[in-house]
Amino acid sequence: MYDLLLKGATVVDPSLGLHAALDVAIERGTIATVAAAIPAQEARRVIEVPGTIITPGLIDLHAHVFEGFTRFGVNPDQGGVYAGVTTLVDAGSAGSATFEGFPRHILPHCHTEIIPFLHICQTGLATIPDIIAEGSINLDATLRTANRHKGLICGIKARMVSPALEIFGMEMARLARRAARESGIKLMVHIGDTEKRYDPTVIRRLLPLLEEGDILTHYFTANPGGVLDGNGRLVPEAWEAAKTGVWFDTAHGQANFSFDVGRRIIDQGLLPHCISTDLTVPGRLRTVHSMTEMMTRFLGLGFTLEQVVTMCTANPAKAIGAAGRLGSLAAGRQGDVSVLRVEEGDWTVYDVLGESLDRQARRSVQGAMGPAAVGMGARPGTLRGHPQELLLGLCLARANAVRARHRAAQARWPLTR
Ligand SMILES: [Zn+2]
């Protein structure tokens, strides 16, 4: 007997080559089977979702959900399950001095799975600018924290911005890389100097430092330090990094996503691997509201629905080393699904510079469904005042596994002071 059966949708899971009218059954927090016309009497609970698409649970590879600890931390479920996203990667909101807040105060209170990166700056993003002096980085404390929370902390985050670069230069990236390697975890590097002060060719020295599996975030930034040279050509090191196996993520945020840059990169053929929001509280008011809005941007850029879904599921799952558990509807995977709707129409989406696509997005990804129809629904109106109100999503069937993982992380938090 299945615990939950979703009937009547079109399943889109490029990792399995699926794009067809199929039902999805979930049992004990895992995907039991995806098949045509599964009889309703085989499940304790049946939800009819006609006219929707079901994808593996969406993964936002770059968000900020250290709510209450940083000024711009979004409530995890607002950016997560209420918006159709089952897994959020927190991209280094916390550093070694503040990280304990995650297992103690954030993870126990949300349905969305959170996979945190640890900022190389010991105070994380509690202040902006983050790194303000040499003392902002404490390598020993970073290593201790990463070690204490093995299995929870997925990687180390560094930001190639001023004044950090003026204080440390490339040493900052090297320290972050060392912390990641010594801890046996990933490295995520933010490019794009929002202060626009540092030498833009820093990218040519940064990229050779990255190794297979490292993540470059803000691939479409128009700020100094992005991957295009003064003539709009990709720097040669970007091609080398792609060959090495570096992941290119396109976090939007408040300042680091340009359609013009994206188009130039796409035209040169070095496509991004992942889509993410870089969600923050002020960002949600001005520039980026949800993962589904990001998906709409990429449909507008000409990517197919399959490519967009891959960039929000299978690829980020691989980038965080969780491909055996997330990013696919294969039997036995964590029971994370997103129920979305693709609306045909003329939609306008903007980048951080206020530029819209000259070719309007013809399709928009939406998830808003009647909240009464499901156990855990969207909250219509939470983004009132924005056209993105329509882009609320929802996820169904949160896996018990998520809560168990979060509880385990919390249990590891040492009760001594
Ligand atoms: Zn960020």
Descriptive overview:
It is a single chain. This protein starts with a strand and ends in a 5-residue tail after the last helix. Helix 3 (139-148) packs parallel to helix 5 and helix 10 (291-300) runs antiparallel to helix 11 (305-312). It is of the alpha/beta class. It is 25% helix and 21% strand. The model is unreliable at 367-401 (pLDDT under 50). The strands form three sheets. It has a seven-stranded parallel beta sheet with strand order 8-9-10-11-12-13-14. Strands 2, 3, 7, 15, 16 and 17 form a six-stranded mixed beta sheet that branches. Strands 5-4-1-6 form a four-stranded mixed beta sheet, with no helix packed on it. Residues 62, 64, 91, 251, 253, 278 line the site of zinc ion.
Count of extended strands: 17
**So how many helices?**
13
Question: Structural class of the helix and strand makeup?
Answer: alpha/beta
Ranges with pLDDT <50 over ≥5 residues? 367-401
The largest beta-sheet arranges its strands as 8-9-10-11-12-13-14
Could you estimate the helical fraction of the residues in percent?
A: 25-40%
Q: What hetero molecules are bound to the protein chains?
A: zinc ion
The major sheet is characterized as: 7 strands, parallel
Shape: globular
- As a whole number of angstroms, the C-alpha radius of gyration is 20 Å
What series of H and E elements makes up the topology?
EEEEEEEEHEHEHEHHEHEHEHHHHHEEEH
**End-to-end span in angstroms?**
46 Å
Strand content: 15-25%
Question: What number is the mean pLDDT?
Answer: 87
